[in-house]
Amino acid sequence: MNKQDFNEGLLGFLDASPTPFHATQNMAMMFENAGFTRLDEADKWELKAGQKYYVARNGSSIIAFTYPKTEKNYVMVGAHTDSPNLKLKPNPVIKEYGVVKFGVESYGGLLLNPWFDRDLSIAGRVSYLDANRTLQSTLINVQKPIAVIPSLAIHLDDKANKERTVNKQTDICPVLSTNEDFDFDEFIKWQLANNGIEDVKQVYASELSFYDTQKAEFVGLRNDFIASARLDNLLSCYTGMVSICSVNADKPVLFIASDHEEVGSESTSGAGGSFLENTLHRMFDDYEEYMQMTRSSLMISADNAHAIHPNYPTKHDTNHAPHINKGIVIKVNANQRYASNDKTIAKFKHTAASLHVKLQNFVTRSDMGCGSTIGPITATRIGIDTIDVGLPTWAMHSIRELAGSDDAHDLYKVLTGLSA
After folding, report:
1. CA–CA gap between residue 149 and residue 67 (Å, rounded)
2. 278-308 CB burial, b ≥16 within 10 A, e <16
3. What is the 3-state secondary structure (H, E, C) of 252-307?
4. Do 404 and 391 meet the contact criterion of CB atoms below 8 Å apart?
5. Superfamily of domain 85-212
6. Which of 114, 186, 187, 297 sits 20 to 30 Å CA-CA off 90?
């Protein structure tokens, strides 16, 4: 796949995936179109050699794999489906001062200031009782801008440009309407009706998030950048998805995109849960074969990396400061916040060199804290050799992040090269 087609597909995937549920659904559709067979965790699996499969958990995490059976040296790619956002509280409606607002929680390490004055919509999953009194769940996406978080005018806050802070309880409630007749359940039923679901008896629960309706777009004099919400980490999800769809079924390849990375991965559908381990045991039910597979395979943990910010260069270690559009980033941390080691780095570098793909190194400043990824979690839980890589990004965890228009395609080339 050439870079232009790759990037155009990426923009479409970003726009169509406002929540982990939507991202997982879109990846499942892609796998279906690429000839993967859907599995259900609650069913008995009867895997056939030479076939390709995928399985989802919670509708927000997904695994796809080839099954050559005799080959055990898997190339695995790990990413995460979730991004920091504003999630609705269970009883979200607040009516005061002549408006209807929604109470929200900040999910993950959210950069709050960029959420002000944006055209916001809502998407997520709803569980309800249908006309036959059967419990159902479905995805909704309002798409239309329905809310905004207005900034406080500088006339009322003369320190706004000096020391602006945001109170997560009181300052970031999105405003929906001046019509105080608003009813939340009726709003949800209206959205379900838009999906063709009529006569809903009861709305029981929902997991809904706000998102910016501005589309993903090329930015820069020569389209140098891709600007979008949720680049962390749908950028890696898309790259891993396209990579496994591009390899033959006789090559041992696995892709996993897990939920809840931004809040620690400790859930049934997070990397700290059993999803990957359960799947691998069902692929290799003989313990000796399972161990042979884990010790001969490689996990590439793909997550975004902090590119050196041209206005804040001192936030980086000078010798380990990645630049946008200058190559894939290998992430290293002496305290195992990243899982890269010399052997996994060497294997990745060898493949990149054969494809003439540029690489960079990232090590956080020694006087600053270091984030982490699913890499160390997966390495610890599965016992698989792992490397942490990423694509250089600005404004990570903002409502609109920025990455290079070259880098993701380079990662795609290396991932398919490792699988060849």
Report:
1. 49
2. ebbeebbeeeeebeebbeebbbbbbbbbbbb
3. CEEEEEECCHHHCCCCCCCCCCCHHHHHHHHHCCCHHHHHHHHHHCEEEEECCEEC
4. yes
5. Aminopeptidase i, Domain 2 (2.30.250.10)
6. 114
Distance CA 24, CA 16 (A): 11
Task: Please give the helix or strand (H or E) that residue 7 lies within, else none.
Answer: helix 3-15
The token pair at 216 is 């993903």
Per-residue pLDDT of the chain (420 residues; tens, 9 = 90+): 899 999 999 999 999 999 999 999 999 999 999 999 999 999 999 999 999 999 999 999 999 999 997 888 999 999 999 999 999 999 999 999 999 999 999 999 999 999 999 999 999 999 999 988 999 999 999 999 999 999 999 999 888 888 888 999 999 999 999 998 999 999 999 999 998 998 899 999 999 999 999 999 999 999 999 999 999 999 999 999 999 999 999 999 999 999 999 999 999 999 999 999 999 999 999 999 999 999 999 999 999 999 999 999 999 999 999 999 999 999 999 989 899 999 999 999 999 999 999 999 999 988 888 888 989 999 999 999 999 999 999 999 999 999 999 999 999 999 999 987
Q: CB-hemisphere CA count at 13 Å for 311?
A: 2
CA distances from 153 to 98, 150, 160, 191, 247 (A): 18, 9, 9, 34, 54
| Two tokens, residue 359 | 């690489």
Contact 10, 235 (CB under 8 A): yes
Q: What are the residue ranges spanned by the domains of the chain? A: 3-83+229-419, 85-212
Q: Please say whether the beta carbons of 299 and 382 come within 8 A.
A: yes
Q: What is the rounded distance in angstroms from the CA atom of residue 353 to the CA atom of residue 357?
A: 6
Q: Is the dihedral of CA 338, 341, 347, 352 positive or negative?
A: positive
CATH 1.10.390.10 for domain 3-83+229-419: no
